[in-house]
Design brief:
The complex is a heterodimer of chains A (about 130) and B (about 325). Helix content of chain A is about 45%, strand content about 20%. The longest helix of chain A has 14 residues. By secondary structure, chain A is of the alpha/beta class. Chain A has a five-stranded parallel β-sheet with strand order 2-1-3-4-5, sandwiched between helices. With about 325 residues, chain B is of the alpha/beta class. Chain B has three domains: about 40 residues, no CATH class; about 220 residues, Rossmann fold (3-Layer(aba) Sandwich); about 45 residues, no CATH class. Chain B has twelve helices and eight strands. In chain B, strands 4-2-5-1-6-7-8 form a seven-stranded parallel β-sheet, sandwiched between helices. Classes of the chains: A alpha/beta (about 130), B alpha/beta (about 325). At the A-B interface, α1, β2 and α2 of A face α2, β3, β4 and α10 of B.
Chain lengths: ~130, ~325
Amino acid sequence: MMVKKIRVLIAKPGLDGHDRGAKVIARALRDAGMEVIYTGLRQTPEMIAAAALQEDVDAVGISILSGAHMTLVPRVLEQLKANGQGAVHVFVGGIIPKEDGEQMRKMGVRFVYGPGTSTMDVVRDIQALVG
Amino acid sequence: MAVTAESVLAGDRLALSRLITQIENGVQESRATLDALFPYTGNAYLIGVTGPSGSGKSTLVNQLALKLAQAGDQRIGIIAVDPTSPFSGGALLGDRVRMSDLFANPNIFIRSMATRGALGGLARAADDAAYAMDAAGYAFILIETVGAGQSEVEIAKLAHTTIVVEAPGLGDDVQAGKAGLLEIADILVVNKSDRLGAEASARALENALALGVEINGNSDDGWQVPVLRVSALHGEGLPELVDVIYSHRRHLQDDRGWAERKNRRARSGLVRLLKESLYTAWQTQVSEDAVDEMAAKIAGGALSPEQAAKRLLET
């Protein structure tokens, strides 16, 4: 019996403590049948990459509201690559200026979500990438 | 893509991680890899941590792993199980939230696992994942069950030492006397011992244990289950807990208990595999439609469940 489940890590790097967005996404992905690993607040990029490796996830969702995305996200991408997980899909949610979003996509981030994004869209995007 | 046994044995963490995924997903190649790894197993010490949701299992596992890792240059594996939704098939695996102290430690490997429909408090893949970690050189493997009510007792078939974690205020001495979860404890922990009512909970458990001894005498293997007061959050009572784990281990090794537990795990794994293989083999012969049809007959009152099952097995 082969059953493949989509596994997604939802991580909150940096120092802001607003995790409602992360929890909403985690819940929506769970209800869409995915296995969601939630790591809690204040993670360093190294901790996120270590968790992604041990959990063998298909995707990593990063929630940032602190404005530090341009320092934190590239470091997560680097760490994932260094661990042999360059193929893991990374998506970012938070308050991200348009130019930063475009730049992150050039670095390899698959999706950037702003406030007001429908959880259905996130589910559909990840299913399309991984499913 | 098959994961080679060599890469797991060489300590490649990504290889171990991928192998566990393949075990969970029932990928055929993982069976051969596990077979090749099996001769390298048998060195890990398996500690089960179970108890009701919210009793503080994850926080306790976090602290235990830190203490065990400090005790020597040894690797610690953690398998943390949370429930799969019976509706969506998804799961929210949140045990890591309490384990951030361990993420960056190169000697610690944490794997969250969903039950995927398995009953008894564990995931089907937990046993084989523990074998994989064992072969990869993890000296201790801590297995945290789902929040357990009264009868999630599968962990006792797997672990060398089973720790049952209780928290204050969850029940009186009648609860403590019920069959099930408390019977499988090698060590009882009353966590959150700084809270009101902790001492009463600990006493109720001690009384229930004493009553058992009064009626049945000491357990067959002569181990007396201790009740420990611990505050995992504040790090209190942990050195004592580690000491008791080590003395239970010595107790098993000095006695026939070691071999018995090894056999118990082997047997329960074997039976599980047999059930799965028989069911899978049978499934290929009978269509889903036939099962639906029989279910409709039961629901409609035309057949009893027993009669329907018999018919399906005869086709």
